[in-house]
Amino acid sequence: MKVKLFVTDMDGTLxxxxxxxxxxxxxxxxxxxxxxxxxTVATGRMHVSALPYVQELGIDVPVITYNxxxxxxxxxxxxxxxxxxxxxxxxxxxxxxSRNIHIQLYSDDKLYxxxxxxxxAFYRKAAGVEGYPVGDQLVNYMDKVPKLLxxxxxxxxxxxxxxxxxQLFAGKIVAVKSTPIYVELIKPGVNKASAIxxxxxxxxxxxxxxxxIGDSNNDLSMLKAAHYGVAMxxxxxxxxxxxxxMVADCDHxxxxxxxxxxxxx
Length: 265
Known about the structure:
Blueprint: E1 5-8, H1 10-14, H2 23-34, E2 38-41, H3 47-57, E3 62-65, E4 70-73, E5 78-81, H4 86-98, E6 102-107, E7 110-113, H5 118-127, E8 131-133, E9 148-151, H6 155-168, E10 174-177, E11 182-186, H7 192-203, E12 210-214, H8 220-225, E13 228-231, H9 237-242, E14 245-246, H10 254-264
Parallel strand pairs: 1-2, 1-12, 7-8, 12-13, 13-14
Antiparallel strand pairs: 3-4, 4-5, 6-7, 6-9, 9-11, 10-11
C-alpha cells in the first residue's frame, strides 16, 4: 500500500543544514498533497517555532509539537495536549540548577528560563523565538508545561544529564536527545509515535499506509512504530539501525526522495 500519512521530523529532516526547506522538497510535498497524501510535521519544537515552516508549505493539518505533547492545527485548533505535573517540573529545574546546567521550560507556548546565557541565546536564534529570563520567578511558569529542555555545554554534558535523569526520575520522565546537546524531558508514553497514532485515527489511515521519517533519537519511537520507518542520510547510528529504509540527507532532498519512493512508486 502506498503512503497516505507522511510524517516528518523538522530539524535535520524537513529543514536542511541552513534551516531552510529547499525548492525541491517544497515541490515534492505539493505534489504529494495534491495527490491526497496527508503531510504533517512531528517535532520537538514549540508550536510557535514550527508554525512559520508549516505556513510556508501552505498546509493546515494538525501539527505535532513538543515531541507529541501538543497536536494543534496551524490555524489554532487544539487536538491534543499533555502536560507534566508541576511538582515534577520544579524537581527537574532544581536538578539542573544544582548541576549548573541550562534548563528551560515551555508554558502556554512561551519559552522561560532563569537567566540569559550562551545556551539560551543559541536556542532562541535556532528556533526563531523569544525567550523570557525570569530569575527566581520561574516557579510561576510551571503550569501547562508539555516538556522541558536541557541544553548541554557539550555532548558529554548532555549524555551525562540523560543518564542521571533516567536514574533519578525513572518512570516519571523520559530523557532523550534530539541533537548532540539538546536533552528533551517528556512524559512517559507521550512521544511522536503516540501522536502519529492519533493522527492516523483522525484521518482513518490504516497503519500500513503511515510513513515516519527523521534523523535523531527523539524520532526513534515513530520510526519503530510506523510501517514505513525512514532514516535520513544524515541520521545518527541509532536511527539508521532502527529504520527500515534510508534516503538522502537533508541537504540533498531526502524528503523528496521518500515522497517519490513511497507515495508514488
